[in-house]
Amino acid sequence: MTVTIEDIRQAADEIRGEVVRTPFVHAKRLSKILDCELYLKLESQQFSGSFKDRGALYRIKNLTDAQKEKGVIAMSAGNHAQGVALHANRMGIPATIVMPETAPFSKIERTRALGAKVILSGETLDDSRKVVDEIVAKDGLTFVHPYDDEHVIAGQGTIGLEMLEEQPDLDAIIVPIGGGGILSGISLAANAINPDIELYGVEANLFPSMSQALKHQPATSGGSTMADGIAVKEPGVITREIIDQLVEEIFLVDESQIETAILTLVEEQKVVSEGAGATGVAAILNNPEKFKGKKIATVICGGNIDARMLSGLLMRGLMRDGRLVRIRTEMVDQPGLLAKISSEIGKARGNIIDVMHQRHFYDVPAKMVEIDFIIETRDSEHVDEIVERLQEMGISTRILSSRSTD
Description:
Blueprint: H1 5-15, E1 24-26, H2 28-34, E2 37-42, H3 52-61, H4 65-70, E3 72-75, H5 79-90, E4 95-99, H6 105-113, E5 117-120, H7 125-139, E6 142-143, H8 150-166, E7 172-176, H9 181-193, E8 198-204, H10 209-214, H11 237-246, E9 249-253, H12 255-269, H13 279-285, H14 288-291, E10 295-300, H15 307-320, E11 324-332, H16 337-347, E12 351-358, E13 368-376, H17 380-392, E14 396-401
Parallel strand pairs: 2-10, 3-4, 3-6, 4-5, 7-8, 7-10, 8-9
Antiparallel strand pairs: 1-2, 11-13, 11-14, 12-13
Helix pairs in contact: 1-8, 3-5, 3-8, 5-6, 8-9, 9-11, 12-13
């Protein structure tokens, strides 16, 4: 392995004061739920919203004067883009970022706002790499790789140093994997300080590139994932070697598990995470026996979630838990009945969010009306109570769905 603990300590010295030493918090509520002692390293609190600040800064600080003058180029779905753009702009270095056309709007605009020239090309990072290579060959820019670079790995490894300075007796660390830069860096730091620490990685099951590479399996990565920050088809060569030697196991988590983890972090810990950042928590939630009774940590590696997506996830969570429900009533169309039903729902302590009438469609009898209510409730039992009260009034009532898409 070409990156050492001395390299990581050197990186820590060089970037100190130019990146945030992020909070490393005890997740008390989640610890109680999971019967373990869980700590969260909140890299979402970096200025750019992700851990990428560290590796990008350390790589840029090690450019030659000639390289700085010509400028840098990077490929990224958003977080590495912002890290490179931020520090290049701060140091007066021109930066070009090639991003997939599928990158979230919020990440694209933030990257532009940080002073970088943004080029949108392709659907994945692998597509973007082709454009990067063309520009490097044509204009002589220096490529700042998002993960497969010794300086980048050393920069990300400073996270591990900080974690073990504050909690030296950790039993295990669980880290998301895209190309493997952050897991490689943390693993090198943790293993050098305490070789007994168990190290685990987590991938989105639509992009199991590192798992498959280590097992010499055919690559199957592809698809649309909310963990876009780790949607990497081709893992790093340097990172693969490090992870193969130091990491015990790589977990795979699906989209529903990632969604649950995002919601759990918001509700239980008041922490906003993007999909990739929540995968460590997703792995812990879905493997509780492995970590029961242990002192463990994971990295919330980014918080750059699109506001619209977060809003949708929160609403879906409410519906799934029975705290927001849509019911349909069918009744004779007569004055005062809507007020009577609304009053009954209010007496049952349901909070009506929205009401929709249907009386002009062919499938509704001429003397009848269908009225849909979207109601905020305590839980599923409360929903059943409301439905039962309406049916006792002689109002035909049914629950349409617990899903916002229905």
